[in-house]
Specification:
Strand order of the largest sheet of chain B: 1-2-3-7-6
Oligomer: heterodimer
Bound molecules: thiamine diphosphate, magnesium ion
Family (chain B): Belongs to the BCKDHA family.
Largest sheet of chain A: 5 strands, mixed
CATH class of the largest domain in chain B: Alpha Beta
Strand content of chain A: 15-25%
CATH architecture of the largest domain in chain B: 3-Layer(aba) Sandwich
Number of helices of chain B: 14
Helix content of chain A: 25-40%
Catalytic activity (chain B): N(6)-[(R)-lipoyl]-L-lysyl-[protein] + 3-methyl-2-oxobutanoate + H(+) = N(6)-[(R)-S(8)-2-methylpropanoyldihydrolipoyl]-L-lysyl-[protein] + CO2
GO molecular function, one term (chain B): magnesium ion binding
Cofactor (chain B): thiamine diphosphate
CATH superfamily of the largest domain in chain A: Thiamin diphosphate (ThDP)-binding fold, Pyr/PP domains
Radius of gyration of chain A: 20 Å
CATH topology of the largest domain in chain B: Rossmann fold
EC number (chain B): 1.2.4.4
Radius of gyration of chain B: 21 Å
Structural class of chain B: alpha/beta
Distance between the termini of chain B: 37 Å
């Protein structure tokens, strides 16, 4: 994480042409995704962006702001309000050679499209023995933390990661959001791209498009030697808060941003745990059958002898995301993560 | 494998009700339709037999729907159009020129989508989600319009499927976007055990078109000429920028829903007898003969050809190779995940003798 951010600028004004390398633009995550979408639309004429209110309005979170004006109504368009139809449209477009980037407006409204996602998008390549690839990037504003109405804050990653044929990622910062989106749209497999809406307005440096680590690579966002915190999306930020606090007591926590929830970077997890011997996985979704279980299983399979304590899970509870004042109590708090850290350290 | 010898008798039965009007259609087209319908009829019976012999785990017969399927397929342009089928469109596949061994590989359960290439065949993979492929047709058609291509999509679906949300979402989107797509509903009166009147409010499937801003047409689905004309008109409209059409072909599923079904539990023999009297095959044969479009030897020669073709397809599908086990890993992704590769390697290791 860069500590000294350059002065905030709304949009990056092109590459520097001089000898000195340009300082990366500072963008919000929502602007970073917008920029990645614009780059994807510009670099491949087969890319299409569509969904509910993404055209003229620019999306309810303004992630697609200005794209229709710039790329036209054929490339960026509003659809009727029909999630299953939107995803079904993407399947047919892909079968006709396009590279669709549909948006589902909110996570909770991905459920009406689950049949098309699971039975069609994820399986068409398989069903057709590779004849009909599905280069579909499904953008889903996701996760909690904005005190939204019911169904406007959900964690779907375990659901989608469980589905054969889908890849799943979730960025934690503007730079990650930009890079992961470009990587997703360039992939020939379907990717569910989960945007942590609580972080949409976070600013950060966004380097220009360039070589990216392979799909399925995690990133150590803060090195440490006493325990590893594993997270994705907005919980990476939460874990960094915890790590800073722990450092005041001399506990050095390593924070791993998983980035890809399928494929999961099992080697990266094992390498981190080999260094720290302890792991705590943190996610917003309910505990039972959440991805924390997958992380814990991978760690004990790959790094059993390194482990000095059982892997701890700090997660949402096995309840629906609660409303307003209860949501911060539902989401993993700094205190709950610190307690888990204490448990693995004192085991 | 003996095939029930009903065909010839039916074909030559002069007392056929409901004459059909061939007026204006080229003889070649009608003769081709007859050949495809007859081949489909025989191949369908063969497929049922293959199920009885344990070669197919199950099969869904299209018996009685040959005119709806062949007539609509005959209206399509094989070079530009794209078919989105369900699981019952064997005769569409046949008339559209799909590799039938590859198609029936799906029913032999060698691979769910069969062995044919759906993109090159311009005939989507067999799809068992009722209503599921209908929005794909709209997406394909939208994509075709965006790149200025000449093609149309056609989505086949049943009367039962017409109740699915996906079909309604798809029709509305097609109406809004005015995509070049034909919604072709084969109303075969039954959705498994549920009859039309428990399925469709509003009188007909076609009536729904009005709500989606497109023409809705009801056609006698057992009259191949009428089906051809209605589909052709819908395709012409779509191709010239006139947007989608919903065609409802009224037909009848003469067989049980599938080889696993017992239709006697929910419908009576009287109804089946009524529809057998409207069998599309003898209706076409009768019309061809009475219009003097075919010579006296035509029917026997056509049946000989059809039987020869069916035999070759049956032998091909019965002897088609099983896919290697590694196929189950190799088609999941374009770029397989490390975990999947690990599972594949472990499986290969375990399988090694
Ligand atoms: C979404 C879905 N629901 C249920 C089924 C089980 N099912 C398969 S076919 C069928 C009846 C379909 O009737 P219809 O659409 O009229 O087509 P037909 O079988 O008559 O050709 C049912 C209920 C299914 N395959 N898919
Ligand atoms: Mg039916």
């Amino acid at each position: 994480m860069t500590t000294s951010a350059p002065a905030a600028r709304g949009e990056r004004d092109g590459r520097a042409d001089g000898a000195a390398p340009a300082r990366p633009a500072v963008l919000t995550m929502q602007q970073a995704i917008n920029r990645a979408l614009a780059e994807a639309l510009a670099e491949d004429p087969r890319t299409l962006v569509f969904g509910e209110d993404v055209g003229r309005l620019g999306g309810v979170f303004r992630v697609t702001d200005g794209l229709q004006r710039r790329f036209g109504e054929d490339r960026v368009f509003d659809t009727p309000l029909a999630e299953s139809g939107i995803v079904g449209l993407a399947v047919g477009l892909a079968m006709n050679g396009w590279r669709p980037v549909p948006e589902l407006q909110f996570d909770g409204f991905a459920y009406p499209a689950v049949d098309q996602i699971v039975n069609q998008v994820a399986r068409m390549h398989y069903r057709t023995r590779g004849a009909a690839p599905m280069p579909v990037t499904l953008r889903v504003p996701s996760f909690g933390g904005i005190r939204a109405p019911e169904h406007h804050g959900e964690s779907l990653e375990a659901l989608f990661a469980h589905v054969p044929g889908l890849k799943v990622c979730a960025p934690s910062s503007p730079a990650e959001a930009h890079q992961l989106l470009l990587q997703s749209v360039r992939a020939d497999d379907p990717v569910v791209y989960l945007e942590p809406k609580a972080r949409y307005w976070e600013r950060g440096p966004v380097p220009d498009d360039g070589p990216a680590p392979p799909v399925g690579t995690s990133r150590v966002v803060r090195p440490g030697r006493h325990a590893t915190l594993v997270a994705w999306g907005a919980m990476v930020h939460r874990c960094l808060q915890v790590a800073r606090l722990a450092a005041e007591d001399g506990v050095e926590l390593e924070v791993v941003d998983l980035r890809w929830l399928k494929p999961i970077d099992a080697d990266g997890l094992a390498a981190s745990v080999a260094r720290t011997r302890r792991a705590v996985v943190v996610h917003e979704a309910p505990l039972t059958a959440g991805l924390g279980a997958e992380v814990a299983a991978l760690v004990q399979e790959r790094a059993f002898r390194s482990l000095a304590a059982p892997v701890q899970r700090v997660t949402g509870f096995d309840v629906p995301y609660p409303a307003g004042p209860l949501e911060p109590k539902y989401l993993p708090t700094v205190d709950r993560v610190l307690l888990a850290v204490q448990r693995v350290l004192e085991f | 494998m003996p095939v029930p010898d009903r065909t010839v008798a039916e074909v030559l039965d002069p007392a056929v009700p409901d004459p059909i009007d061939l007026g204006g259609l080229p003889t070649d087209l009608l003769v081709d339709c007859y050949r495809h319908m007859l081949t489909a009829r025989l191949l369908d019976a063969e497929a049922v037999a293959l199920q009885r012999q344990g070669v197919f785990p199950a099969y869904v017969s299209l018996l009685g729907q040959e005119a709806a399927q062949v007539g609509s397929a005959a209206a399509l342009d094989r070079g530009t159009d794209f078919v989105f089928p369900t699981y019952r469109e064997m005769a569409v596949a046949l008339a559209f020129g799909v590799d039938m061994v590859g198609y029936l590989a799906s029913h032999r359960a060698l691979w769910h989508g069969g062995y044919y290439d759906p993109v090159r065949s311009r005939f989507g993979a067999v799809n068992a989600v009722v209503g599921g492929p209908v929005p794909h047709a709209v997406g394909w058609a939208l994509g075709e319009r965006l790149r200025g291509g000449p093609g149309c999509a056609i989505a086949y679906f049943g009367d039962g499927a017409s109740s699915e949300g996906d079909v309604h979402e798809a029709m509305n989107m097609a109406g809004v976007f005015r995509t070049p797509v034909v919604f072709f509903c084969q109303n075969n009166q039954w959705a498994l055990s549920v009859p039309n009147h428990r399925q469709i409010a509003g009188g007909s499937v076609a009536a729904r078109a009005a709500g989606y801003g497109m023409p809705g047409v009801v056609v006698d689905g057992n009259d191949v000429a009428a089906v051809y004309r209605a589909t052709r008109e819908a395709l012409d409209r779509a191709r010239s920028g006139g947007g989608p059409t919903l065609v409802e072909a009224r037909t009848y599923r003469l067989a049980p829903h599938s080889t696993s079904d017992d239709a006697g539990r929910y419908r009576d023999a009287e109804e089946e007898r009524y529809w057998r009297g409207r069998d599309p095959l003898p209706r076409l044969a009768h019309a061809l003969r009475s219009a003097g479009l075919v010579g006296p030897d035509f029917f026997e020669a056509a049946e000989r050809d059809a039987r020869g073709r069916v035999t070759r397809i049956r032998e091909g599908v019965a002897s088609a190779p099983e896919p290697p086990g590694t196929d189950m890993f190799d088609h999941v992704f374009r770029e397989p995940t490390p975990e999947l590769l690990r599972q594949r390697a472990a499986w290969c290791e375990e399988e090694r003798p």
